Known about the structure:
globular; two-stranded antiparallel ribbon; 31% strand; Ubiquitin-like (UB roll); 7 strands; single chain
Amino acid sequence: MQVECRFYGPFRGDVGEKQITYETDAETFGELLSELSTTYPELDGRLIENEEIAHSTVVTKGKKDIRHLDGPATRLDDGDVIRLTPSVYGG
């Protein structure tokens, strides 16, 4: 499936782009965040800690109806727009 990831604050610098279209086989947000941490080593340990979303990271989804996730087990849907924001940036 294909998702759009938008990065804010220092995450943008870590990835080198504001947003990417990302092709994934992940079924949950936890799996996606782990994949992103592998694809972009600068994000390693910053998105997922002990199989939970890192406390310093806010992850939301949706193009217009922006919602916080229920946790890393939240199902990922084709076409989701994911925003990754360090919490110190007001996420």
